[in-house]
Amino acid sequence: MKVIKSTGELQKFHPKKIYKSVREAGGSKKLAKEAEKFIKKHYHKNIETKEILSLLVNFLKKEPGVSERYDLKRAIMSLGPSGFPFEDFFASVLAYYGFKTSTGNKIKGKKIYHEVDVIAEKKKKFMIECKYHNSTGKNTDLQPAMYTYARFLDVKKRGFHQSWLVTNTRCSNDARNYSKGVNQKVTSWSYPKKTSLQELIEKPKLYPITILKNLKHETKEKLYELKILIAKDLLKYSTKELKQKTNLSEKEIKKIIEEIKDVCKI
User: Fold this and answer.
1) What is the pLDDT of residues 90-99, one digit of tens each?
2) pTM over 0.85
3) Is the pLDDT of residue 54 over 80?
């Protein structure tokens, strides 16, 4: 049994991985077993991984919040084509970990100004380059790793201690090895272990607002402008405040709040 990955490559299909991933998304043992059987039943030759994901996302709606959490990677890729919301989102994630952050900075090098995606400070001052992809199958390769470090060298005298490359997809081995060689931090979707982007988000339930199925596109755009990118941050506001910020009705807001509580298990 084989499946076609987003890169077009063939990969061996392991149905047991579905059970494990559903459990990791907070699904019950019963739901995980049913999901595994469901995908086996719908398996066909040349099935693509994105089709399996779509089938699962719909199937997992049987238990509140599981479908949304299972679809986290795609939610990150829905943060908008410009990449700016991803920068603000990652800065917000770091803030939960005690970093002082700022985005959209222009820092003077020896001869030119550099646009630095995120500046983060916690004992050390980091210059962060965010490489965002809004579709699967696109990895971050060697070139971004090299130019991130080159820019760091040009602004280092501005008080920076280390460069940091962040991506919402996979980082190539060359990019990772190069970064190790120059002491550059790397954070990608599943690397490094225990502090990957996925881990940083899931442990404290810092899910992006794009994970919410009841949030309209225009509402997301308004929240982007306000730099409210983490779903559970909406719980900090009263219904009255959210009505003013989003122009949604009380009924719509109540539905969104219930979804946040389901997704974040609050």
Assistant:
1) 999 999 999 9
2) yes
3) yes
Say if 32 falls within a structural domain.
yes
Distance between CA atoms of residues 208 and 263, nearest Å: 11
Are 198 and 125 in the same domain? yes
- Rounded to whole angstroms, what are the CA distances from 138 to 11, 105, 208, 214, 222? 17, 26, 21, 28, 28
Domain range enclosing 258: 207-263
Of the residues 181, 202, 223, the one at which a domain ends:
202
Prior bond to 192 cis, omega within 30? Answer: yes
Which residue, among 157, 264, 160, has the nearest Cα to 209 in the 3D structure? 264
